[in-house]
Write a structure and sequence with these properties.
Layout: E1 7-11, H1 16-27, E2 31-36, H2 39-52, E3 57-61, H3 67-81, E4 86-89, H4 104-132, E5 135-140, H5 153-173, E6 178-185, H6 191-195, H7 209-220, E7 230-233
Parallel strand pairs: 1-2, 1-4, 2-3, 4-5, 5-6, 6-7
Helix pairs in contact: 1-7, 3-4, 4-5
Bound molecules: NADP nicotinamide-adenine-dinucleotide phosphate.
NADP nicotinamide-adenine-dinucleotide phosphate (NAP) binds next to α1, α4 and α6.
C-alpha cells in the first residue's frame, strides 16, 4: 500500500521512536504533524525533513498529559494538514521504583501521560477519521503491557491500559475502516531506556528506534481488511 500524500500525526516526535518514524514516513511522502513538549527538537526535525523531502511538516508543542494542551495541538495540526490518515500515539514516559517508594505524583504522572495522554489525543483526532471513514491508529504500548515486573507497577499499569484501550477502540471503529493497532516493543535503544536505567547491553545487538519505525510502516501497509490487535517486537538482547 502506497502511503504517499497521506497525513500522519505523531506524538513524541522529537526523539527516539517518534522521530525515527517521522523520518521513515517522510521518505514515503507522508505529510506530517509533529507533537512534543520541546519546540527546539520539533523545529530541527521540521527543518531537516522539509529540506530533504517534498512534504508538508507542521509542528505543535503540548504536554499530552494536559487535556487542553493536547486538544489544542491536535486541532492546530489537523487544521494545518487539512486531513488525518495516521495517528501514532507514541509519546510516553517511564520511571521505575517499588510501589511504596514511588511518590504518588510520579505514579500519577506516568498514568496521566501514557494512558490519559493517549486518550486525550485520540479523542481529539478520531472525529476527523470517522468523518472520512478511514484511517490508522497505532499505539505504542510495551512488553510491560503484557507482563508485570517488580518496580514496574505504574509503567506496567499504564501500558496494560493502553492495550485495553486499543482492543476496545478497535472493535468500536473497525466498521468505519479505522484500524487500531498496538505495538509491544521490548527495550529499544533510546533516551527513555537510558534514563530509566533499562538494560541496554550490547548496543549493536539492541533494537533501535529505526527498527520499530520499520515495523510501524509495515503495519500501516497491511491490506485495509487486515486487523492486527498487537504486534510484539523483541530485542535480541535478553533481559
Ligand atoms: N525505549 C524503550 O525501551 C521502549 C520500549 C517499549 C515501549 N516504549 C514506548 O515507546 C514510546 C516512545 O519512547 P522512546 O523510547 O522513543 O522515548 P524518548 O526517546 O524519550 O522519546 C519520547 C518522546 O515523547 C515526548 N514526550 C514525553 N512525554 C511527553 C508529554 N507529556 N507530552 C508530549 N510529548 C511527550 C518526548 O519529547 P518532549 O520531552 O519534548 O515532550 C519525546 O519526543 C513510549 O510510549 C515508550 O513507553 C519504549
Amino acid at each position: 500500500m502506497n502511503l504517499r500524500n497521506q497525513t500522519a500525526l505523531i506524538t513524541g516526535a522529537g526523539k527516539g521512536i517518534g522521530k525515527a518514524t517521522a523520518i521513515a514516513l517522510a521518505q514515503e511522502g507522508v505529510n506530517l504533524g509533529l507533537l512534543a513538549r520541546n519546540r527546539a527538537d520539533l523545529e530541527s526535525l521540521q527543518q531537516q525533513l522539509t529540506g530533504t523531502y517534498s512534504i508538508k511538516v507542521s509542528i505543535a508543542t503540548a504536554d499530552i498529559s494536559n487535556r487542553g494542551e493536547a486538544e489544542q495541538a491536535v486541532e492546530t495540526l489537523i487544521g494545518e494538514l487539512g486531513s488525518l490518515d495516521i495517528l501514532l500515539n507514541n509519546a510516553g514516559t517511564a520511571q521505575f521504583g517499588k510501589l511504596v517508594d514511588m511518590a504518588p505524583e510520579q505514579w500519577e504522572q506516568i498514568i496521566q501521560t501514557n494512558l490519559m495522554g493517549t486518550y486525550y489525543v485520540t479523542r481529539a483526532a478520531l472525529p476527523t477519521m470517522l468523518k472520512q471513514n478511514g484511517g490508522s491508529i497505532i499505539n505504542i504500548a510495551s512488553t510491560a503491557g503484557e507482563r508485570g515486573f517488580a518496580t514496574g507497577s505504574a509503567y506496567c499499569a499504564s501500558k496494560f491500559a493502553v492495550l485495553g484501550l486499543t482492543e476496545a477502540l478497535m472493535q468500536e471503529v473497525r466498521k468505519s475502516n479505522i484500524r487500531v493497532t498496538a505495538l509491544t516493543p521490548s527495550t529499544v535503544n533510546t533516551e527513555l531506556a537510558v534514563k530509566a536505567g533499562l538494560p541496554i547491553g550490547d548496543e549493536d545487538r539492541m533494537m533501535q528506534a529505526e527498527d520499530v519505525a520499520e515495523l510501524i510502516l509495515a503495519a500501516l501497509k497491511l491490506p485495509q481488511r487486515v486487523f492486527m490487535k498487537t504486534a510484539g517486537i523483541w530485542t535480541t538482547n535478553p533481559q
